[in-house]
Amino acid sequence: MLRAGPFSDERVRGLANRRFVTFYFDLSDAGAAGDPDARKFVTKIKKELGGGAVATPNLLLVSPEGVLAGETGNYASSDDVYAAMKKALKDHPEFNAESEAEKAETKPYEKARLAFDLGKRKTAAELLAKPANEDEWLFLAHIQRWREKWDEMEAALSHVKRDDLLDDARMERAWKAWRESKYEALRDALAEFPEDSNRSTEARYFHSLARYHLGEKKEALKAWKALAKTPDEDGWVYRADWAYMTEKQKGKTSFSSGDADRSPLGRIGYMGRDNPDLNGPGK
Amino acid sequence: MKPLAALLLFASAALAGDCKRDCTGIEWTLPFKAALEKAKKENRLLLIKPIAFGTEKNGGW
Asked: Cα separation of A45 and B38, whole Å?
C-alpha cells in the first residue's frame, strides 16, 4: 500500500529524494530484499522487529547514528507520511541543510525545482516568474496546478505549444477536472491519450477513475487491470492495481502469501487503507 | 565442498537487493551499507521501510 499510495505521491517522492537516503529491506534475511546489516541496525532501534512474528513495521526516519527521528504507520496516508517527514526535518535541522550542489545552483529553473521538491510551491512559482522556454512554462503550470491556482496554470499553459509537450499540457488541465470532481470533463479530456506519452499511465489511471465515478465501474476495473499488467511499472500502475483491488477485495479482512487470488500486479492484497480516489478528490 | 561453496556465494549475492526494484520514482539506495555510508557522507536522515510480509524477486512486497 505504501508504494501505491505515499511513495507514489509527488510530494513524498520529491522530499524523499532531496532530503533523505531511502532504503527498504526484508526483515527475513532469506527474502529477496533481505539485508542482514539493515536488520541488525533496525532491530537495535526497534527491538520488537527482531521476533519471529511481527506486526507490519512502521516507516522509520533514522539518523546514521541510529537515533529515531520520526516514524509513521505502514498504512498512513500520503499526507501523514509527508507530515512525518517534514516534522523529522524540522526537529533535526542538522539533516536539512542544502547540499553543496544545491548552494551552487544559479539557474532559476533548478532553484524552482528544488523549492518545489521541498514543498515550497509559492517560492518555486516566484523563482520561475520569467520562464525562459516552453519547458519552464510547463513546469510553472505544474507548480500552479499543485497550488490549485487554475487561472495562473492556464496562463502558463497558453505558452506551451511544442508538439512534444502537448500531452503534458493536456494532463495538467485534466487535473483541474479531477480536483473539481468534473468526471465527464475528466473522461473527455483524457480519451484516446497517446500510449507512447510520458504521461500515458497517469492519463489511463485518471480516465478509468472518471469512468468509475460516472458509474462505468466494470469498464474502469477492466482498464485498471490492463494498466496494472503493463510491463513498465510506475506509481500510476501501482495505484491502478490498488484501485482494482479496493473494489475486488471489499470485505476481505485477512491476507496470506498463500492466497491464490492475487492482484494483477501479483500482490496478495492491500491492507489498511482503500484507495482514496474511489471516494473522490481529496476525500 | 567446492560446488556447495559456489552455491552459497550465489545465494549471498542474491540477497543484496537482487530483486526487481520498486518503480515509484523514489531513488532507493541499496544495499544498506551503501545507504548508511551515503547518509553519513551527505548528512541526511535514513528513510527505512522494513518489510515483514516477504519480498519476491519479481519486486513484490
From this structure: 20
- Please check whether residue B46 touches A, CB under 8 A: yes
**In this predicted model, what pLDDT tens digit does every residue of A144-185 receive, in sequence order?**
999 999 999 999 999 999 999 999 999 999 999 999 999 999
* A94 touches B at CB < 8 Å: yes
Q: With contacts defined as CB-CB under 8 Å, which chain B residues touch A88? A: 45
Q: What was the ipTM of the complex prediction?
A: 0.91
Beta A68-72 vs A59-62: how paired, if at all?
Answer: antiparallel
Q: Are strands A59-62 and A20-26 parallel, antiparallel or unpaired?
A: unpaired
Of A13, A59, A94, the CB nearest to B49: A59
The sheet carrying A20-26 orders its strands as A20-26, B45-51, A59-62, A68-72
Pairing of strands A20-26, B45-51: parallel
In angstroms, the Cα distances linking A132 to A170, A261, B3 are: 21, 52, 62
Candidates A237, A165, A245, A171; CA nearest to A201 is A237
How large is the average pLDDT for residues A33-51? 93
